[in-house]
Design brief:
- The chain has 39 residues and is mainly alpha-helical.
- It has one domain.
C-alpha cells in the first residue's frame, strides 16, 4: 500500500485513508451482525 500511495498528493492520501476507515467500519458491522445473527 505504501508503494502505491507514494505518488499520491496529500488530498488523495487523506481520501484513501477515509475510504479505508469507512470500509473497515462496514466490515466490522457485518461481522458483528453475523456474530449476533442480526437480520
Amino acid at each position: 500500500m505504501d508503494t502505491l500511495a507514494e505518488s499520491c498528493t496529500e488530498a488523495e492520501y487523506q481520501r484513501l485513508e477515509e475510504i479505508f476507515v469507512n470500509c473497515s467500519r462496514y466490515e466490522l458491522g457485518f461481522w458483528e451482525m453475523a456474530w449476533t445473527l442480526e437480520r
